[in-house]
């Protein structure tokens, strides 16, 4: 997840690993978890999966807390290397000023305090022992590509900023108030209806640790499933959570706290007057330590729009600018990389994965540029994800109308319409083109 300067060394190591016998490089997931715990506990620097112990130590020492939520084994965020973090000459002395807690599951997690993009497999919180949050770190805008958003240097900058806020605490308590939500649908993940019969507040130390673990993405899945089970529309804030700064036209430097690298033309950021080189000091009155802090503020902006203030520094000067959000400002967000989209496809597409036609394909089918044309890239084959397959849909079908709408240009647009306007049990009429011929099918909406 974090950009490693030692890419050549890692490539060489990977080449050696690939030559090892298959049995030696294929430990089970359970073995990976147990080995990870043994290593962390033997080193004794990180408190392993015991947040209460970390809080107690922080209160005793007066140090701030660094709580890292990380899936173990972290199959996708391979760019985060614990040994590198712990031994980095810049990070190590900063980490030593924190009580460091490694949280590998969300069982029993306080969801009023620890709110983050649950489609990530790494999220860091810097906070006071009394629960006041100094900042967040970690983001994701792609299934595997992290280097454009986060880096070792960026983490160091965020830690330095948190230490500065900690040194001024509690005089700055009010300034930090917006970083804490204070409310959640449920206080703990295992209280969600879809999770309560399967999980408890603790990992099964004597049984299967992996099977007893509530993963981050399951919290988001449980929230969407709850809405669906209540036959409620799934709101944009839940469908498009933690908007990436790109949605407002901002590209931020991953090596710094929140420094603007580029501003997209005719964007919310450009209209507000932001420019490359600007540093975002505060957003909606909250001190900003990283891109994750920016996303937290954006996440709290209603989907209906509104205005927030940004305090910007450029050189030795600072200025306040308003960022104004129109209605439906979240909708351009890309959600296809998210794990949560898998569950949404079950509800809305019957397990189909849909992609827009390219220009050449549109011309071949004589489809206008602004007309809906979503190609069935793949179909699920099992259980609820096979609903579209059972309904007669095939790979390479091109959907040109869904439930009377022909303006749903992306898979995300179709999903949004389905989960906000249709409930489980409905049958939606879908018009499509198959092998150049028109066809109409019924697609069942699911729980």
Q: How would you describe the overall organization of this protein?
A:
30% of the residues lie in helices and 20% in strands. The chain is α+β, with helices and mostly antiparallel strands. Strands 1-3-2-4-5 form a 5-stranded mixed β-sheet, sandwiched between helices. A hairpin with a 5-residue loop joins β4 and β5. The chain is globular, with a radius of gyration of 23 Å.
Number of domains: 3
What is the CATH superfamily of the largest domain?
A: Glutaredoxin
- In terms of per-residue confidence, which ranges show pLDDT below 50 for 5 or more consecutive residues? 1-23
Biggest β-sheet: count, sense, barrel?
5 strands, mixed
Distance between the termini: 33 Å
Structural class: alpha+beta
CATH class of the largest domain equals Alpha Beta
Strand order of the largest sheet: 1-3-2-4-5
Strand percentage: 15-25%
């Amino acid at each position: 997840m974090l950009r490693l300067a030692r890419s050549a060394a890692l490539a060489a190591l990977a080449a050696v690993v690939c030559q090892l016998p298959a049995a030696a490089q294929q430990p089970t997931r359970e073995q990976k978890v147990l080995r990870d715990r043994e290593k962390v506990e033997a080193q004794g620097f990180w408190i392993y999966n015991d947040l209460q112990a970390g809080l107690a130590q922080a209160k005793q020492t007066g140090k701030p807390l660094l709580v890292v939520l990380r899936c173990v084994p972290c199959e996708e965020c391979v760019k985060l290397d614990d040994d590198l973090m712990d031994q980095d000459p810049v990070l190590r002395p900063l980490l030593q000023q924190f009580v460091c807690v490694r949280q590998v599951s969300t069982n029993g997690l306080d969801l009023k305090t620890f709110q983050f993009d649950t489609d990530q497999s790494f999220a860091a919180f810097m906070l006071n022992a009394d629960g006041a949050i100094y900042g967040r770190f970690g983001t994701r805008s792609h299934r595997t590509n992290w280097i454009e958003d986060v880096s070792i240097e960026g983490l160091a900058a965020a830690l330095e900023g948190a230490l500065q806020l900690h040194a001024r605490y509690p005089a700055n308590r009010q300034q930090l108030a917006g970083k804490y939500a204070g409310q959640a649908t449920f206080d703990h993940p295992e209280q969600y209806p879809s999770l309560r019969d399967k999980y408890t507040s603790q990992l099964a130390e004597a049984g299967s640790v992996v099977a007893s673990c509530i993963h981050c993405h399951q919290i988001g899945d449980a929230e969407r499933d709850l809405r669906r089970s209540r036959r409620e529309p799934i709101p944009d804030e839940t469908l498009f959570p933690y908007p990436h700064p790109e949605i407002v036209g901002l590209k931020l430097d991953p090596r710094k706290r929140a420094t603007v690298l580029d501003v997209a033309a005719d964007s919310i950021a450009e209209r507000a007057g932001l420019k490359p080189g600007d540093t975002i000091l505060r957003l909606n009155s909250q001190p900003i330590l990283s891109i994750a802090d920016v996303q937290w503020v954006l996440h709290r902006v209603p989907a209906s729009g509104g205005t927030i203030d940004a305090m910007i520094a450029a050189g030795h000067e600072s200025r306040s600018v308003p960022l104004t959000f129109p209605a439906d400002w979240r909708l351009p967000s890309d959600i296809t990389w998210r794990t949560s989209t898998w569950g949404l496809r079950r509800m809305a597409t019957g397990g189909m994965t849909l992609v827009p036609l390219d220009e050449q394909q549109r011309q071949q089918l004589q489809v206008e540029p602004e007309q809906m044309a979503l190609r069935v890239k793949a179909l699920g084959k099992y259980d609820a994800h096979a609903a579209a397959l059972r309904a007669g849909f095939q790979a390479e079908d091109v959907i040109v109308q869904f439930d009377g709408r022909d303006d749903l240009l992306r898979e995300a647009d179709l999903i949004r319409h389905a989960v906000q306007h249709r409930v489980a049990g409905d049958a939606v009429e879908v018009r499509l083109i198959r092998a150049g011929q028109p066809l109409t099918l019924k697609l069942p909406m699911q729980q």
